Description:
The N and C termini lie far apart (78 Å). It contains 5 helices and 9 strands, in the order ααββααβββββββα. It has helices spanning 2-26, 47-85, 114-121, 123-127, 200-206; strands spanning 97-104, 110-112, 132-133, 139-142, 145-155, 160-163, 166-168, 174-185, 191-198. The chain has 2 domains: 2-67, no CATH class; 68-206, Nuclear Transport Factor 2, Chain: A (Roll). By secondary structure, the protein is of the alpha+beta class. α1 packs parallel to α2.
Amino acid sequence: MKSHLxxxxxxxxxxxGSLAAAAQSSVSTPxxxxxxxxxxxxxxxxxxxxxxxxxxxxxxxAIAAQRRTEQAxxxxxxxxxxxxxxxxxxxxxxKSHAPDIVVHMPxxxxxxxxxxxxxxxxxxxxxxPDTRIREHxxxxxxxxxxxxxxxxxxxxxxxxxxxxxxxxxxxxxxxxLGMVTIGHWxxxxxxxxxxxxxxxxxxxxxIGLAQ
Length: 211
């Protein structure tokens, strides 16, 4: 009986060891001197024990696959902000956004579809052509969800259109606006819904248009 329990324990340890290795590799963390547990021949285990071990292996594989997807979504979002958005490469937005994406804006408005979302992104670059996002201090992924924080930086260096052909003269003031984006990712690896958060009043204060 004791020998049987030892065999089952070692078999389960192998599966758990695989889970730990999968978790480490999903975040590309180098590790040294890691030795895999010795294999336990399946024939030495009872049928119900083999079934438990196989079930655990499937769970490990599923978790590892989910971790890979989560890391891919975060990498896609980094490229979205650092490269696509900051470079105004609107034709590359389909890499991270579904054609019918729903976007919730900070002021409560909701846009439907990628073309409408692009039109919401463009105005910032009119009065602040150097607008960019350079870092994501917080990056969280869980299943089909990501949450990322960052800062939108730029300078109010060009006239700001306010409608009816009128503009506000640039103040030359720089801004650094904290923002958070929550995204829901579909099975195709793109977001189908997005929530954007930043403080518009803070932006107006920083560029000299509010007290």
